[in-house]
Amino acid sequence: MTRLAVPLAVLLVLGVGAGPAGAAAVSPSSEPVESAALINGRVVRDAATAQRLIDAYWTPERMRTAIAVPDPRVIEDPALEQRDRPGNVGRPQTAVRPAGPSAAGGTRSTGRAVNPSAGVGKVFFTKSDGKNYVCSGSTLNNETRNLVSTAAHCIHGGKGGVNHENWMYAPLYAAGKTPYGKFAAKWFHATKGWTQHSYHWWDFAFVNVWPLAGVRLVDKTGGNGISFNQSKSIPVTVLAYPSKAPYDGQKQVSCVTSLQWAAAAQVKVFCGLTPGASGGPMFQNFDPTIGFGFTNTVVAYVWKSRNYGPYFDSDVLTVFNRARNKT
């Protein structure tokens, strides 16, 4: 269908709820999947216990030796993609706008072209093979002030797999330091398109995290906005923690570039960020003086120096709307 070309200035704020008129048919793979996070193999029932267990598990040594999760296998079958996800593209809209922290701290300008952002962090988790891995993620503003955006393969093993355990988000991680603490996962949100099929165009996820010492994530760091059904050709700023050579995963890496169309439900940038960058946000309208922008997609994998991500259409908005009010 024809995509509406609406300038960002007239995007609707908090435009959620009603389905877009004339949207394409929704794929069965778009069905949201919600599940409770596990720490040490069990569901945790309170924030204090989650904090104690996640702090104990993620020692400096475990964080140092965690490795980049491998990129999922590239599926190159446009016909399959069209059948599975025809694209549910409605009007361009902004679901939430960026918000600064309400607690002490938050991003401050350093005068650099692109600041390391407190709204971006490093993700740590344990896979079913017992090994510890890393990805990237970003904080999203939401009603319950507790939401992280990342890639689906950073929370779940995909077809035939299970949820990862001991999932932790460290905002503004740098060289072993976690200046805003370690936030433990409480709820995972993905789709059947990833958990049952491992399709790359469904490789996105949202994670609700527990409060830390009584303070919610967005109150501590601030949070990014998020937008849907945008143009596939816009300027973007990518922030992530690539962890394979020539990078080492010890600091945020930025790439200021332009988004490009890749396939019916995917977009790409020529950034060449290596594994470990998975889940890192591609921001529209990133403001380097405050360190926040509008998450427009996430890094899913790298192939031939190109980083690909799922196109954030109305199917993604549906999953976000389920996650945004979860406590």
Average pLDDT, all residues:
88
Low-confidence stretches: 1-24, 104-112
The amount of helix comes to 10-25%
Distance between the termini: 36 Å
Shape: globular
Side by side, the strands of the main sheet go: 1-6-13-19-18-14-15
Major sheet details: 7 strands, mixed
Order of SSEs: EEEEHHEHEEEEEEHEHEEEEEEEEEH
Structural description of this entry:
With 327 residues, the chain is of the alpha+beta class. It contains six helices and 21 strands. It has helices spanning 47-57, 60-65, 78-84, 192-195, 217-221, 314-323, and strands at residues 12-13, 32-36, 38-39, 42-43, 67-68, 93-96, 120-126, 132-140, 147-150, 165-171, 183-191, 205-209, 225-228, 235-240, 253-258, 260-263, 266-269, 281-287, 292-298, 301-303, 306-310. The strands form four sheets. The chain has a seven-stranded mixed beta sheet, covered by helices on one side. Strands 7-8-9-12-11-10 form a six-stranded antiparallel β-barrel. The protein has a four-stranded antiparallel beta sheet with strand order 16-17-21-20, with no helix packed on it. The radius of gyration is 18 Å and the shape is globular. It starts with 11 loop residues before the first strand and ends with a helix.
